[in-house]
């Protein structure tokens, strides 16, 4: 069996930055969901992306949940959400007892269509809008922000896949009232599991930290006046994050190299189109994705790679096609369905060498020979 190539796996720094912070936590006995690493990871991540405040949480999903709660989303409210995304974007809407309305993608960005978003406002009055920056590709934020401002609705950015991506020079996750990031094991940097909520609203971030620490009141005894959650990031996990943040730019460079390698090797196959990279968008290229427009189908590519111990996967299945979410409304014209039906996420692991990339491309090109 050939050596395994992963889609995207954890990649610790060669310099050992992570172990320095982990060791410091052990040496000081701060093995808890608080401590220096947590505080500094919040400060360093906020400074990196250009946000004033941040709350380190147990997952990106928890961050979305807290963003919705901070935005005042409650039972019976409507929240607009892209249909082409992972379920973690939509699940917290249900946690809050709200109703998702799914918004289609556009082919120019693969992200939320501003045209479909505007149409949705003609039919509904949402409490919040969640926009996703899929696979590290920025959504069309000028248009989306303008629409949300026009309708006076809170904008939440799910930047779980786009840490380091910029739109017209500004980092994704900092356009809306709230931005969230994920540090799951497959993300561009990882803490093994974890997330971050960023905002320029100090009071709301402070409130999120309170909710995320079981809403424990300032009292000598254990007292809780509000519903709380066990959502705070641990000091050990935050230490990994601090180390990983130091190599974020290096990881983005390698992700871009992987994308451009595929694009150069597969450029002569007319049936293959690459995910759209717009002039105003500097992606982090989290995953290199293609769509197929001929007789070779995504399953053919995935199975061919799988036979050689290489991991790939389909594009996200749209939420409105999921058994749990299919009862909710979808606004659009089927663009997300076409991307899903024709799309493949190619191996984008930053530990790959060029010989690994040649091996992958040889298999893919062989399907057309």
Characterization of this structure:
With 369 residues, this protein is an alpha/beta fold. It folds into 2 domains: 17-245, Type I PLP-dependent aspartate aminotransferase-like (Major domain) (Aspartate Aminotransferase, domain 2); 248-366, Aspartate Aminotransferase, domain 1 (Alpha-Beta Complex), CATH 3.90.1150. It is built from 12 helices and 15 strands. It has helices at residues 17-27, 36-49, 60-70, 87-95, 114-123, 141-150, 202-212, 235-245, 248-265, 298-307, 335-342, 354-366, and strands spanning 53-57, 78-82, 99-103, 128-132, 154-158, 166-167, 170-171, 178-182, 195-199, 272-274, 281-282, 288-292, 313-314, 330-331, 343-346. Helix 6 links the parallel strand 4 and strand 5. Helix 3 crosses helix 4. The longest helix has 18 residues, at 248-265.
Question: From the 3D coordinates, which CATH architecture of the largest domain would you assign?
Answer: 3-Layer(aba) Sandwich
Oligomerization category of the chains in this entry: single chain
Q: Give the proportion of residues in helices.
A: 25-40%
Distance between the termini: 24 Å
Cα radius of gyration in angstroms = 21 Å
Strand content: 15-25%
The biggest sheet, with number of strands, parallel, antiparallel or mixed sense and barrel status, is: 8 strands, mixed
**Tally of distinct domains:** 2
Structure summary, number of beta strands? 15
Name of the top-level CATH class of the largest domain = Alpha Beta
Shape: globular
CATH superfamily of the largest domain: Type I PLP-dependent aspartate aminotransferase-like (Major domain)
Q: What string gives the helices and strands in order?
A: HHEHEHEHEHEEEEEHHHEEEHEEHEH
Strand arrangement, largest sheet?
1-9-8-5-4-2-3-14
Supply the number of helical segments. 12
């Amino acid at each position: 069996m050939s050596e395994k190539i992963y889609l995207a796996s954890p990649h610790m720094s060669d310099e050992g930055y992570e172990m320095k912070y982990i060791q410091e936590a052990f040496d000081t006995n701060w093995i808890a969901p608080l401590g220096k690493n947590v505080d500094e990871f919040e400060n360093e991540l906020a400074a990196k992306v250009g946000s004033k405040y941040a709350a380190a949480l147990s997952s990106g999903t928890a961050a979305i949940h807290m963003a919705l709660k901070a935005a005042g989303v409650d039972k019976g409210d409507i929240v607009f959400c892209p249909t082409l995304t992972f379920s973690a974007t939509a699940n917290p809407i249900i946690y809050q007892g709200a109703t998702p309305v799914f918004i289609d993608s556009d082919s120019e960005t693969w992200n939320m269509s501003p045209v479909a978003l505007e149409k949705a406002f003609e039919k509904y009055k949402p409490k919040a809008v969640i926009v996703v920056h899929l696979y590290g590709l920025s959504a069309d934020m000028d248009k989306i922000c303008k629409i949300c401002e026009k309708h006076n609705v809170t904008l939440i950015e799910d930047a779980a896949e786009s840490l380091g991506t910029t739109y017209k020079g500004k980092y994704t996750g900092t356009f809306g009232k709230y931005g969230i990031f994920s540090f799951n094991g497959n993300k561009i940097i990882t803490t093994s599991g974890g997330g971050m909520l960023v905002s320029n609203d100090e009071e709301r971030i402070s409130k999120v930290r309170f909710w995320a620490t079981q809403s424990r009141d300032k009292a000598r005894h254990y007292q809780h006046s509000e519903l709380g959650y066990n959502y705070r990031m641990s000091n050990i996990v935050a230490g990994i994050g601090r180390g990983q943040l130091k190599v974020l730019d290096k990881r983005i460079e390698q992700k871009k190299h992987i994308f451009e390698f595929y694009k150069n090797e597969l450029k002569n196959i007319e049936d293959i189109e690459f995910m759209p990279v717009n002039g105003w968008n500097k992606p982090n290229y989290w995953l290199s994705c293609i769509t197929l427009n001929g007789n070779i189908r995504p399953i053919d590519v995935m199975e061919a790679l799988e036979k050689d111990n290489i991991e790939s996967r389909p594009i996200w299945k749209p939420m409105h096609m999921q058994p749990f979410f299919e009862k909710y409304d979808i606004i659009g014209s089927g663009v997300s369905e076409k991307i899903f039906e024709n799309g493949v996420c190619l191996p984008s692991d930053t530990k790959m060498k060029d010989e690994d990339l040649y091996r992958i491309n040889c298999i893919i090109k062989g399907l057309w020979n």
